[in-house]
Structure formats: structure tokens, C-alpha cells
Specification:
Cyclophilin, 21 strands, 307 residues, six-stranded antiparallel β-sheet, single chain, 2 domains, alpha+beta
């Protein structure tokens, strides 16, 4: 067994995997890596299964010291990572010698970085997953849903492989200003015509009121003209519109049901890009049909097996 010792952390640094599924009927949300693409590439570089636990580091402020020589992998945001003061770029695996310190300082590009270890970090499974959901007290190193804390040990048992890097063409483009694709929902026809025009032809600003439950979009207020709704299940990426007309994109730690009308839901790839945006960033929405979004998702998943 090899270990890393946490020297610094914040409440935004969490153990995550692919998420918790098959339990929403119990009122339990899925959790999991907000940027599933980057988390998967971090595991891919080490030959891991794509769904094993990684560390999700949001905005920096995280540091570990190696208790053994090790090979780790980093993908996602550039959070000013350093090994003993020397810069470390993401999207590659790297060696960390015994006693060396890996430090994440602050966002330079993107919001969330993902650190993987051979075989995945060890943690108990709660309802089939180690994903941390603080609100529900599930997952994490102790199974109680706690953020990673200073002094805790991160253990793993996998074997180290050769150094590897994600090809530039396969990386998530954190500089892209392309619109976020949205699969149209059942209530789309019950918004005013002007609101539909504004929704897909105006820029939306990401509010600072954002967490792993959801991100509020600020812009022209949307007007829902339909009847009041009965609460129904909410998919990942659902774009709800509350009475104030300001949409909310619901993320991994969302509630399982809700009664606000929805424009639709962001595609998985759009969600990964959104998870890397900082408050104040501007995004646009683009309507797509489900068949197109599904084909695009399958094509992206094939990259992991074809690379």
C-alpha cells in the first residue's frame, strides 16, 4: 500500500468517483466528479478503470506529501500545481518522490483539477459508490461525506505504469466559448416566444451563488406560461426556471425531485465544460435533439478505448 498525506485542504476538495446510481428512488442523489471528462482522463493515464475514486480539487488550496515514491496523474484545470516549487502542467502522469510536496495554488485556467493514483484511492463504498455528497453525509474517506482534511492519509494499492500524457486533441478545451448544448425538455413549449429567443440568443452570466448542487444563470428573465407543475424527477444538467425567471443548472449533488419548469437538460459534455467555468464567466445555450446529443456522447466515450 502507498500513501499520500494531506498537508492542506479546503471544504471544496473532495473524493469523487463516477457517482452513485440506482438510488434516486430513496431520495439519494448521485454525486460524482463534476467534470467527468477530466476525472476519466486522469484515471485513463494510469490504466485505471474510468470510474475509480479520484481527488476533485476545486479552486486550489490543496497539498499532499508523498510517503512513498509514486506515479500519479493530473487532468482538468490548471490550478497552479507545483512539486517542491516547480510548476506541474495538467493532462499528464508524473512522478512524486518520497517526501516531495504537491501543491495546488489558485486557478490559472478552469476551476476543477483531478488527481488520480494507480488503482484509485481507497475508500469505503456507500450504496455502491465512494462519491462524496456532503449534504447527505455519504462517501469520502470515512464514508460519512466529509471533505478531505489536513492530516488525513490517501491510500492506494495499484501498480505504477510508465509516464503518459493525454493528446492535445483529446483534452477538454477549457478555453472554448462554444455554446453549451441543451436537450429540449417537456415544458419547452410553455415558455413565451420572447423567452425562448432570449434563452438561446443571449449570453448568461454565472452567478457567484454556485456549488455542486447547481449554478444560477443571470440574464434576461424567462417567462413560463404553463400551469403549475407537480414535482417530478430531475436529471443531471436540468435547467430549471424558478419564478424569478433566472435559470438554474442542476449539478451532481442536486435534489432528486423538483417542481419548477425546465428548458431541458445540458448534455454530459456541456456539463463537463460548465463545471470548469468560474463565477462571472459568460455562457450561451444551444438547443439540440436527444438523438444528436446521444451520438455525440457515444463518440466521445469511444476516445478512451481508441486512444
Amino acid at each position: 500500500m502507498s500513501r499520500l498525506r494531506i498537508e492542506a485542504s479546503t471544504p471544496l476538495c473532495l473524493l469523487q468517483d463516477a457517482g452513485r446510481f440506482g438510488v434516486r428512488h430513496l431520495g439519494v442523489t448521485q454525486g460524482g466528479a463534476a467534470d467527468w471528462c477530466s476525472a476519466s482522463w486522469a484515471n485513463w493515464m494510469l490504466g485505471n478503470r474510468l470510474d475509480v475514486p479520484v481527488i476533485e480539487i476545486t479552486l486550489g488550496g490543496f497539498a499532499v506529501v508523498a510517503e512513498d515514491d509514486c506515479l500519479l496523474a493530473l487532468a482538468g484545470a490548471d490550478l497552479g500545481a507545483q512539486i517542491d516549487g516547480q510548476p506541474l502542467a495538467p493532462w499528464r502522469s508524473f512522478k512524486l518522490g518520497k517526501g516531495q510536496k504537491l501543491l495546488f495554488t489558485q486557478p490559472l485556467l478552469g476551476a476543477r483539477a483531478y488527481l488520480a493514483a494507480p488503482g484509485g484511492f481507497e475508500a469505503p463504498k456507500v450504496l455502491g459508490s465512494s462519491a462524496t455528497v456532503v449534504r447527505e453525509a455519504f462517501g469520502g474517506l470515512d464514508g460519512l461525506g466529509l471533505p478531505l482534511a489536513k492530516g488525513a492519509a490517501l491510500s492506494y494499492r495499484g501498480e505504477s505504469l510508465s509516464l503518459r500524457e493525454v493528446p492535445l486533441a483529446l483534452r477538454l478545451d477549457l478555453k472554448s466559448n462554444a455554446p453549451l448544448d441543451l436537450v429540449l425538455g417537456a415544458q419547452i413549449g410553455q415558455f413565451s416566444g420572447q423567452s425562448l429567443f432570449d434563452a438561446f440568443n443571449s449570453a448568461w452570466t454565472l452567478d457567484s451563488r454556485a456549488d455542486r448542487m447547481g449554478i444560477r444563470l443571470l440574464g434576461k428573465a424567462l417567462e413560463y406560461q404553463g400551469q403549475p407543475m407537480i414535482s417530478e424527477g430531475i436529471p443531471l444538467g436540468a435547467v430549471q426556471v424558478p419564478p424569478d425567471g433566472q435559470p438554474i443548472v442542476l449539478l451532481n449533488d442536486r435534489q432528486t425531485i423538483g417542481g419548477y419548469p425546465r428548458l431541458g437538460a445540458l448534455t454530459p459534455l456541456a456539463l463537463a465544460r460548465l463545471a470548469q467555468c468560474l463565477p462571472g464567466a459568460q455562457v450561451r445555450l444551444r438547443p439540440v435533439v436527444q438523438e444528436v446529443a446521444h451520438c455525440e456522447h457515444i463518440k466521445y466515450l469511444q476516445r478512451f478505448s481508441n486512444s
